[in-house]
Write a structure and sequence with these properties.
Blueprint lengths: L10 H29 L3 H38 L7
Helix pairs in contact: 1-2
Length: 87
């Protein structure tokens, strides 16, 4: 209910805000893993993390779509039975 006022904003504003929040969260998460790798003197791991960051950003969007589709499928299967019958 706290985010319901966001429905009054234009779609583009919500989309841009969501994009910025996702990029910031991924950057913070990735930076933390980078720091952990450096702390334990895993320089090769840290370098690999930095190189793969753009790929990870693209892949997570793809993975989120797959998860969303799976949730819709499971929701539909739960409403109509395992076989999807409408009886």
């Amino acid at each position: 209910m706290l985010i319901s006022p966001l429905t009054l904003l234009p779609y583009q504003v919500v989309w841009a805000g969501d994009l910025i929040l996702h990029l910031a969260a991924y950057f913070i998460l990735y930076w933390r893993w980078f720091e952990i790798a450096r702390q334990y003197k895993l320089e090769r791991v840290a370098a690999t993390l930095i190189r793969l960051f753009p790929l990870w950003l693209v892949f997570t969007g793809f993975l989120n779509e797959i998860i969303a589709q799976k949730h819709l499928y499971l929701y539909g299967a739960g409403r109509h039975g395992a076989a999807g019958s409408h009886a």
